[in-house]
Every structure is written in C-alpha cells, then in structure tokens.
UniProtKB/TrEMBL annotation, chain A:
<feature type="transmembrane region" description="Helical">
    <location>
        <begin position="6"/>
        <end position="27"/>
    </location>
</feature>
<feature type="transmembrane region" description="Helical">
    <location>
        <begin position="80"/>
        <end position="99"/>
    </location>
</feature>
<feature type="transmembrane region" description="Helical">
    <location>
        <begin position="106"/>
        <end position="128"/>
    </location>
</feature>
<feature type="transmembrane region" description="Helical">
    <location>
        <begin position="39"/>
        <end position="60"/>
    </location>
</feature>
<keyword id="KW-0472">Membrane</keyword>
<dbReference type="InterPro" id="IPR030949">
    <property type="entry name" value="ECF_S_folate_fam"/>
</dbReference>
<protein>
    <submittedName>
        <fullName>Uncharacterized protein</fullName>
    </submittedName>
</protein>
<feature type="transmembrane region" description="Helical">
    <location>
        <begin position="148"/>
        <end position="166"/>
    </location>
</feature>
<keyword id="KW-1133">Transmembrane helix</keyword>
TrEMBL record, chain B:
<feature type="transmembrane region" description="Helical">
    <location>
        <begin position="21"/>
        <end position="38"/>
    </location>
</feature>
<protein>
    <recommendedName>
        <fullName>Energy-coupling factor transporter transmembrane protein EcfT</fullName>
    </recommendedName>
</protein>
<comment type="similarity">
    <text>Belongs to the energy-coupling factor EcfT family.</text>
</comment>
<dbReference type="Pfam" id="PF02361">
    <property type="entry name" value="CbiQ"/>
</dbReference>
<feature type="transmembrane region" description="Helical">
    <location>
        <begin position="109"/>
        <end position="133"/>
    </location>
</feature>
<feature type="transmembrane region" description="Helical">
    <location>
        <begin position="72"/>
        <end position="97"/>
    </location>
</feature>
<keyword id="KW-1133">Transmembrane helix</keyword>
<dbReference type="InterPro" id="IPR003339">
    <property type="entry name" value="ABC/ECF_trnsptr_transmembrane"/>
</dbReference>
<dbReference type="GO" id="GO:0022857">
    <property type="term" value="F:transmembrane transporter activity"/>
</dbReference>
Amino acid sequence: MKLKKWFEISLQNLVLLGIVVAMDVVLSKISFGPATVQIGLGFIGSVMLGYFFSPVWSAIGGGVADLVTSAIFGQQGGFFIGFTLTAMLGPMIYSFFFYQKPIKIWRIVAAVLLVTVIVNVFLNTLWIHIMYGLDFRAALIQRAPKELIVPWIQMVVIYFVLEALSRVKIKK
Amino acid sequence: MSKIIIGRYIPGNSIIYKLDPRGKLLACILFIFVIFLANNWITYGIISAFALIAVAATKLKPKVFWAGVKPLVWLIFFTSILQLFFTSGGTVYWNWWIFTLSSYGITNAIYIFIRFTLIILISTVMTVTTMPLEIADAMEWLLTPLKLFKVPVDKIALVMSIALRFVPTLFDETLKIMNAQRSRGADFNDGGLIKRAKAISPLLVPLFISSLETAVDLSTAMESRGYRGSSGRSRYRVLSWSNVDWINLGFFIALTILLLIFRTH
C-alpha cells in the first residue's frame, strides 16, 4: 500500500521536484570554507530531495540532477552511467530515513554513514576502478582522508538544514 | 558567474556542430566502454588518434580543451602516481615497504594517464559543441526504452526540462539572497563548524520558500494552459537525424572493430 503511494505524484510536486533538482545542481556548484577544507553543498540537495519526496521520486530527482549537471556543465571525468546510479542512490537512502519522519539525531547519523559507506566509499570507488582501470586499493586510499572527515561535518550541517526546512514545511 | 550560467557551450559551425546530439551523446557514452578494450600500445594509439580527430574536427582552440582538463590535472597526476607504485610485475627497479616501482607499473600509469585525458577530451567535445537543451533532449530520447518497464519517462522529461530552465534563475536568486544576507552581517565563510552550518539556513530557507512559490505558480499556469499529464501531447522541438550522423556512428563502429582486432587477448 505504502509502496504504491511512493509512485504517485501531483503536478505541483512534480514541478517542485524539477525546481529542487535545479537547486541541487546550483548548490553542488557552491562550496564553503577555507581553501584547505572546502565543503561542497551538493549533499544538501540530496537531503532536500530525500526529505520532501518519496524514495522513488527522490531517486528519480537525484538521477535527473546528475543528467542536468552533465548537460549544463559537462561531467568532470566523462559521462558514466555508474555515477548516475550513485546519484540516484544517495537521495533514495536519505528518503528512507527522512521522508515523512520526525527529525532525530540517530536518523541523521545512520543516513549519512550509510550514504558515505555505500555511495561514496564503495560504489564511486568501484566506478573509478572500472572506468580508469585504477587499482581498487589505490582508489580507496586516495579517497580515505576525505571520507573520514567530511561525513561528520555533513551530519552537523544536515541537522541545521532539516530543522530549517521543517519550519518551512509547517508554514506552508 | 554568467559564464557558468550559459554552460560550457561555445558557438561554432564545424562539422561536429551539425551532428545530431543523440548520435554524439551515444558515441560519448559508448566511448567510455570502448576504451576498456584498449590494453596495449597499438590500441591506445588507435583510440588516441580517434579522440584527437574528434578534437580537431571541432576546429576550436586548444585552450578550450585545456580548460576541461585543468581542474582535474592534480587528480590525474595523483592517480597515475598511485597506480605507478601499486602495480607490481615485470622488472623491479626500486622497492620500499609496500611501494614498488616496476616496468608494469610504469606502463600502467601511462595507460591510466591516457585514459583519463581521452575521456575528458571526448566529454569536453560533447559539452562544448552541444547546447544544454539539445543534450537534455538527447538524454530524454535515450531514456525512451525505459517506458517498457513502466518508468514514467514523460514525467522525468518534464522534471528535466523544468530543472534545466530553472538552474540559471536559481543561480541568480542564490547570489541575490547571499548578498542580501551579507549586507546585514551574515558571514558564509567564517567561524567554526557549527556557526558555518547555521549560516547555511539564512541562504537555504529563503531559497526554498521562493522555489515553493515558483512551483505553485508554475503548476497553476501549466494547468490553466491545458496541461493534463504528459501523455497524448505533441512535440514542438524535434531532433533530426541526417547522413552525417550515420558517418559519425560508422566511425565509431570502425574504431570498435579496430580495437577488437588489435587488443591483446
């Protein structure tokens, strides 16, 4: 029953999805912080997709965001279907944890850890391994420092973002 | 910022510009799979020649392609160097702890370097010679077979064109909101972690509220203009396939066959 509901979407929400996807694309081009620890805001777009849309439409939104980014900016490192799949998976995981659910610290921690491990550490490394024939261990080592630091920063940012977004939703 | 908004498209009128975006996108996607076939010097030579012909056919300045490679130069170098020390086999020249410098390592590092550069060159050719709207149309066409699996391709296409249309608008909006908040003391680049995380909501909340309003307005406008779902509608913007596109695909098939013949089995 719930699954069937996940597939339905009204025109207004469909248009909103388009605009949130555009926000995702814009945010992923902005980064904050000093040059040494630049934090991209792309993950906020994924969180927004996950928070406002069902897992099905979050995933579609994530995929479309990836396609639109490639269409406008060109994908750094080439078009590869694997990265579109991981772009779909992130918002989908966030949606399982955040969509129509109260904001809880454990949800944020679990969602970010899952996304980091599955999407960033495992799958994206796998795609690089497949695409460039790079040694899997070497690709992991290259990513490790970033993926050990960034998730904790993301959790703090996501907490404030969700708090802020939940206020907007109530006002609507 | 306005440069980013337009995207990376650079107007021109060489033969590559006249190709159908569908053919170009297809070739661009398949190129990454075909490059897997290259595994010796001859095949890498063939595929490099193919990529360089494509680059030359655009008749654009080398500067354009350098701009595509530049942001990734360090990543390419770092990756190649890691590969250099992590591949063992062949003659060993130097060895320390887990690092080995071997003849296999050196060839492998050079292969990866070439692969990286070629993939970036080909996707730069794609994005520089095709307008974003055309690329999006081509993507929509590529998604069409998914209809067989009941994927709502029409809805996805609608989401894609709305997103594409609103990226520049939201870019402007974001800058405006950031400047407005800055003008009354907001600081997006200073303070500790928590402070910085908090600084994002004065940007995000107004942005989201205006997006919500746009979505309501736009959906009302669409419905009042007779939009009743994506199916059963005609198309105003149509892509057209011509003879040049067959030649394009022919080149690509020839490349694949050459690679299959010359690769080490």
